[in-house]
Amino acid sequence: MSEVIIPGASGIIxxxxxxxxxxxxxxxxxxxxxSDVPAAELPAALCRGELDFPELSEVDVVRHYTRLSQWxxxxxxxxxxxxxxxMKYNPxxxxxxxxxxxxxxxxxxxxxxxxxxxxxxxxxxxxxLAAITGLPAVTLQPAxxxxxxxxxxxxxxxxxxxxxxxxxKILIPDTxxxxxxxxxxxxxxxxxxxxxxxxxxxxxxxxxxxxxxETAGIMITNPNTLGLFETRIREIAAIVHAKGGLVYGDxxxxxxxxxIIDARRCGVDVxxxxxxxxxSTPHGGGGPGAGPLCVSEELARFLxxxxxxxxxxxxxxxxxxxxxxxxxxxxxxxxxxxxxxxxYIRSMGAENLKKASQLAVLNAAYIKERLRxxxxxxxxxxxxxxxxxSDAQLQEHKVTTLDVAKRLIDCGYHxxxxxxxxxxxxxxxxxxxxxxxxxxxxxxxxxxEQIVREAAENPELLRQAPLRTKVRRLDETLAARQPCLCxx
Amino acid sequence: xxxxxxxxxxxxFRYTEEHEWVSVGGAELMVGISDxxxxxxxxxxxxxxxxxxxxxxxxxxxxxxxSVKAVSELYLPVGGEVVAVNEALGDSPELINxxxxxxxxxxxxxxxxxxLEQLLNAESYRSMLRG
Lengths: 488, 131
Known about the structure:
The complex is a heterodimer of chains A (488) and B (131).
Chain A: H1 58-70, H2 92-98, H3 101-104, H4 116-133, E1 137-139, H5 145-162, E2 169-173, H6 179-186, E3 190-194, H7 204-210, E4 215-221, H8 233-242, E5 246-251, E6 270-273, H9 275-278, E7 293-295, E8 307-311, E9 314-318, H10 335-371, E10 387-389, H11 392-395, H12 401-410, E11 417-418, E12 428-430, H13 438-457, H14 459-464, H15 476-481
Helix pairs in contact in A: 2-10, 4-10, 5-6, 10-13
Chain B: E1 14-15, E2 20-22, E3 29-33, H1 35-41, E4 44-48, E5 55-56, E6 61-67, E7 71-75, E8 80-85, H2 88-91, H3 95-98, E9 106-110, E10 120-121, H4 122-130
Antiparallel strand pairs in B: 1-2, 1-10, 2-3, 3-9, 4-6, 5-8, 6-7, 8-9
């Protein structure tokens, strides 16, 4: 057997204190010339005591952040197969486009005629997202996926109210994204959990049994969080519609189906997209994101306002009618994310977006087939953009999924998503995305195979991992029970 | 994680398929989670409990448990009114890991004690886990 080449290696990493623990009296980044304007007395009421600002030189600050960045791991450093998160490489040209001063520096309160470029981008992005989903009316306001979900639930409620239909429940499959029940509950609906069938997807009978005229509709993540396509989606949608409900599609996994699946034709009425996942904004650091919401023609009047519209040669903001659920974000939403998505869609084109999805699915399917003899598959059926393994075999060696994840860090990879979805014991959920080439995926597979061999031959190595990182295994329990959020 | 023969059971209690236990006898019944459940969840870091006075039907969600791995729902084994919540778990959720059958989460006044008959006893819960 040839030796496995591991990308992870050890190098010098510098320690770095917090900013207010370093620096010294009088250090500064630049010297401001003395003022020739007479000093004005500040009213005592406006003055506070000594503020604890650090005094630092430019090089102090540059080294501080450079060192911190070296402790980090991102898609620009290596493969980041974090399932359900679509951590794909984001081309730098999108960053450049989003940083264009005419767009990035436009004041959000400028009148429409002075921001025609920004409005055109918003208008065209709305129509691209409509084309990608099949749902014709789009709001760009929601700031992230869960915000899109909440907006969608507000639209569910507004639609039912407009028909004098009082509904209290929402069906949520156990393979939906974890935020779905929270979004429904925040809107006053009671989430009703639906168990997926033995094949990891929804069964028509389960929906038939649960759907009634008290139920506002269903929230389906498709492909679901097992990376499986909900093949019964159209039958399920028909049942929900027949009982007067609506179908919400969680489009967080759109990276698997761009240009392939038309959500509208699947029976979906409302769907959000995670632009930061599928349409190229660096994420994982907590934002900003964007979760535009796409709806059917019938529901367009309920969308938040304003939306960009085109009047002849001019673009303007349309403030909607009295049916709108109202604003869900100040100004135009998270515009920098919208700009990246626009640049990404324009630079890829329709054919390449479709190809990206095909490659994302191919890469996941390749990993699934190559590793099926190494780790037990949670569900042995064709996967979409991610594949899920269980810890059944690791347990024999008293090695946990967490141990494998930590060992992967030693080997130079960001770990996959672990212990999610909850329906799989000790889940290991791998989403390679389309941006990894075959050679890199082969290397990842070889490393994972080696780690599973180590689990049998030297389990202690995994239990001790990570060994090569700046800090060793952190006490996650203590951090969760007694969080320290304000430095020292 | 524990081997099957390391798992603890309380022979007096009744169990649900979702791994909650409920005490038997008396006007007020204690509810908690089994040793198997706490072992599977790993270190518990937060317990979300209902308000005293809230009523729930059998099988209804009455709270959540957050561990380092996941957030899990708690389902009431028998319907009734919550008469007490275990305040000690607020500061010390680890009590559930340390003593799963001592660390009750809520006490309830059951609306229908006949519902207890529909739960698993220790022996049948054990066989369910054994598969």
